[in-house]
Design a protein that fits this description.
- The complex is a heterotrimer of chains A (133), B (609) and C (97).
- With 133 residues, chain A is α+β, with helices and mostly antiparallel strands.
- Chain A is globular and about 40 Å long.
- Chain A is built from four helices and eight strands.
- Chain B has 609 residues and is an alpha+beta fold.
- Chain B is built from 23 helices and 17 strands.
- In chain B, the strands form five sheets. Chain B has a six-stranded mixed sheet. In chain B, strands 8-7-12-9 form a four-stranded mixed sheet.
- Chain B is globular.
- The two termini of chain B are 31 Å apart.
- In chain B, 64% of the residues are buried.
- Chain C has a five-stranded mixed sheet.
- The N and C termini of chain C lie far apart (38 Å).
- The chains are: A alpha+beta (133), B alpha+beta (609), C alpha+beta (97).
- Chains B and C meet through helix 8, helix 9 and helix 18 of B and helix 1 and strand 4 of C.
């Protein structure tokens, strides 16, 4: 099983740097819709987050009708953006709300762990993100 | 080139409910960069200076900048430019949050609202298009409620909004436009929304935000983050204090240094300051700090619902300036009242600074026998330090009820109506009520309040230099240069659109570094700063044409009286000192004795004579 | 002589106190007083504030020290003898405007 990204929502300041870092690392653009982590404000309560929990037996991959998902060497599920048709079968299959569709390019978006390095973690100024084995 | 721009402006006409896109030229980008630069350039060319702020001919320019929506920290603000109903000049006003990113990802650098809707409307801009929807059911509704309504009705959970409450609808001249707990506070932009019958504007976007040189930009961002981290690494970092306890972290210092305007400038320090400062709020209310897009300071303090005498509410803040205006200035040491009043101001959509000054002005008028202490009706005594009276008066102002109707016009117009010497103590310049800080104590603040294009505003004052006494605060020496320099630099940073706090850490060269890598342009630090100066002069020319002449580069007489606890060893402000400050300032600016930029100066700045 | 030292904001949590009254010999300097202060405050305050200030003669932390409502700008100013009735506060600095 791939290492997981864990968020401490009590620390999160909703700055969404993680979102932009993610879209930049994967697409060289800033677009929170293309980020594999989503921070949702719900004032006055602390924020909520959507992110992939890296299931051992993921439901998203087998649900894909176009073979647009594959396992990385770290056993995270990764979207092949050139192949994905944006049908959202993976979105429906995931019970954990860990995958969604980028409405601009109509492809599935989910966290691929950056080869286990989780590039977002280092950019979180308050240390709300951490990697869990 | 210019990848960080959308290069598009969207003109929304509320009269005929149409919209049209226009390109933003290369020349415009190179000359005015974005944000405040775009807005001031557009307004000064499209809205004649004599236009009434509430006329359908006034326009609202909602502007973002080249760094908006990127990972560069402290560039999440949106800039609104309009003609101010308070000063009658051009106003620039800012709010943080997520609105700016939403506008840019919707595909625009500028959104312009023109005309006037025939009834109350909200406007949404989503990937599905633009919609104008009548909303009589939102009339008088608190901003937060109206925003939620629009998001729900649009079925768009990731929409971000800016809207008004009762104060904007009632044309309170210092009504704020509110964007999700953040306020476009100063200058009455909310009232201009109200005059156009625009209740809420909601925007959701899905587009990519790009930069010209991704690798170079990443490097510039790393250097920027390193600079902020260095600052934050010191236990004494001001921004660190803002992140821990909010902008109210400065109150203790300001009070100790006797520059905390108290009881309508009668005193320079407040014995109850420690009961209403950042620390006090952190201890009393459960708090969750939040930041704007990409921000590493996170100064926004969301308070969980708390019980007060006036109801159980949650709020964000109050900010430092509110601790002054509704706190010390009104002699209020009641944190529950401040907490509640902060929420009232958000709910109604009012600038807490102008609001507090108007409340305090009424209290001062009672003290001087000009207004009756019974002016609030039965059960209330209008007097300093009375929390119930403060809360009641805020309600009356928003509703324009009784004496509230007079104060809804701001202290300048109220004092003109009242007469009896009230103009001498109306805390305003060019119609804009005083921000915190005391011109009596600090010469740079006196110069800034008197000369700022926004009126008595603190946003471009050499406060740190004077308060920390790197320069003697009561000396006229070198003040013109200090003030003009910070006015220019801050104007330049507002083209990006920067948070005001970025300049605490970053130098003009660092702003230019980010801009160049994002846009492909080649600004030097000097060019960047000079652009800020050109904008300053462009605003000045417009304001002069609007009738705001040099006689308004002045301070009310109360600033030349000596507060009772004025500290020993410092000189109070005198008329002769003030005359020197203004004369030096005009000279340094290259303006004539009437405060008009000379043709040579305009030419030097590349402005049309 | 006695000297009251006040702490605000972060310095309260770092030092563990709001204020402290120091009993000092006559003609004592602020530097002596700050050495004395080391015995009263929590170790974090000593390592993060007082050591950089006193031992490294660093003007950074000097900006936190307000004597009689005035800031000091050279380390030499802490070698001036104190007078009865002087007040000293640790306050966060202000920047910008």
């Amino acid at each position: 099983m791939a290492k997981r990204l864990v968020i401490d929502l009590g620390k999160c300041t909703e700055c969404r740097t993680c979102e932009l870092k993610c879209s930049f690392v994967h697409f060289q653009v800033y677009n929170s819709k293309k980020a594999g982590i989503q921070i949702l404000s719900q004032w006055p309560e602390q924020p909520a987050a959507r992110l992939c929990i890296q299931c051992k037996e993921p439901d998203c991959l087998p649900a894909c009708p176009s073979d647009a998902m594959e396992f990385t060497p770290e056993r995270a599920v990764k979207v092949l953006y050139d192949v994905c048709i944006g049908c959202a079968s993976c979105v429906d299959a995931c019970q954990y709300n860990g995958v969604w569709i980028d409405p601009l390019n109509n492809v599935a978006i989910k966290c691929d762990t950056c080869e286990g390095n989780y590039r977002c973690v280092a950019d979180c100024i308050v240390g709300a993100l951490r990697i869990e084995e | 080139m210019y990848e960080c721009y959308k290069r598009k402006l969207l003109r929304i006409n509320l009269t005929d409910r149409t919209s049209k896109e226009e390109p933003i030229s290369e020349k415009m980008i190179q000359r005015w960069v974005g944000g405040m630069g775009f807005g001031v350039k557009l307004l000064t060319h499209e809205v004649p200076p004599t236009t009434d702020a509430f006329s359908p001919d006034n326009k609202i320019y909602i502007c973002v900048g080249p760094l908006t929506g990127t990972i560069a920290p402290l560039f999440a603000q949106t800039c609104i430019i309009t003609k101010s109903p308070l000063t009658t000049g051009v106003i620039n006003t800012y709010a943080g949050g997520q609105l700016a990113t939403a506008i840019k990802s919707a595909g625009y650098d500028v959104i312009v609202f023109e005309g006037k809707a025939d009834e109350l409307v909200y406007v949404t801009l989503t990937p599905g298009g633009i919609k104008f929807i009548n909303c009589p059911e939102l009339k008088g509704k608190p901003v937060r409620e109206a925003e939620e309504y629009v998001k729900t009705a649009s079925g768009c959970e990731d929409m971000h909004t800016v809207g008004i409450g009762l104060a904007g609808e009632n044309l309170i001249r210092y009504a704020a436009a509110i964007s999700e707990t953040r306020a476009f506070g100063r200058g009455g932009a909310g009232a201009v929304f109200g005059s156009k019958n625009l209740k809420v504007f909601g925007v959701a976007g899905i587009r990519d935000i790009k930069v010209s040189d991704p690798e170079g930009f990443e490097g510039a961002v790393e250097r920027t983050i390193a600079a902020f981290k260095e600052d934050l690494s010191h236990p004494w970092s001001l921004l660190g204090g803002f992140g821990r306890i909010g902008t109210g972290s400065g109150v203790a210092l300001i009070n100790d240094k006797h520059v905390f305007a108290t009881r309508y400038h009668k005193y320079t320090s407040f014995e109850h300051a420690h009961e209403i400062d950042g620390e006090a709020f952190m201890q009393k209310y459960e708090t969750h700090p939040i930041g704007c897009q990409s921000c590493l300071v996170h100064c926004g303090m969301i308070r969980k619902p708390a019980e007060t005498k006036w109801g159980t509410i949650w709020t964000r803040g109050p900010e430092y300036e509110t601790m002054y205006s509704i706190g010390s200035l009104c002699f209020n040491g009641d944190s529950d009242m401040l907490y509640y009043a902060n929420d009232q101001a958000e709910k109604y959509g009012m600038d807490t600074l102008s609001l507090g000054v108007n409340v305090a002005f009424a209290m001062e008028c009672v003290d001087r026998g000009i207004l009756s202490k019974d002016a609030l009706g039965e059960g209330y005594i209008l007097e300093f330090g009375n929390p119930d009276a403060t809360v009641r008066l805020i309600d009356m102002i928003a509703a324009r009820e009784g004496i509230g109707d007079l104060l809804a016009e701001g202290v300048k117009r109220a004092s003109e109506k009242l007469g009896r010497g009230t103009q001498d103590f109306a805390l305003q310049v060019k119609g804009m009520e005083f921000a915190a800080w005391m011109p009596e104590r600090m010469r740079g603040v006196a110069t800034t309040f008197a000369t700022a294009n926004r009126g008595a505003c603190h946003k471009r004052a050499p406060i740190g230099m004077e308060l920390m006494e790197f320069v003697p605060m009561d000396s006229t020496e070198g003040r013109a240069e200090l003030v003009a320099h910070i006015q220019n630099v801050v104007n330049a940073t507002f083209t990006l659109v920067s948070c005001r706090f970025a300049e605490f850490v970053l130098k003009p060269a660092q702003f230019a570094d980010l801009l160049n890598n994002a846009s492909g342009m080649n600004f030097t630090a000097e060019q960047f700063e000079q652009m800020g100066e050109a904008i300053w002069n462009m605003e000045r020319m417009y304001n002069l044409a609007a009738g705001i002449d040099a006689t308004q580069d002045s301070l009310p007489e109360i600033c030349f009286k000596v507060p009772l606890d004025f500290p020993e060893g410092y000189k109070p402000l005198t008329h002769s000192d003030f005359d020197i400050l203004i004369k030096d300032y005009y000279e340094y600016r290259g303006w004539d004795a009437n405060g008009t930029p000379t043709p040579e100066q305009l030419e030097k700045l590349g402005l049309k004579v | 002589m006695r000297l009251v030292v006040r702490f605000s904001g972060l310095f309260r949590s770092l030092s563990g106190m709001k204020e402290v009254t120091l009993d000092l010999r006559e003609e004592c300097t602020l530097r002596d007083a700050l050495q004395e202060l080391k015995k009263n405050v929590q170790p974090e305050f000593v390592t993060q504030i007082l050591i950089p200030l006193l031992e490294e003669n660093n003007t950074g932390p000097l900006r936190l020290l307000v004597k009689n409502h005035r800031h000091m700008h050279s380390v030499a100013e802490i070698d001036v003898p104190l007078k009865e009735g002087d007040t000293v506060s640790f306050l966060p600095p202000m920047e910008g405007g």
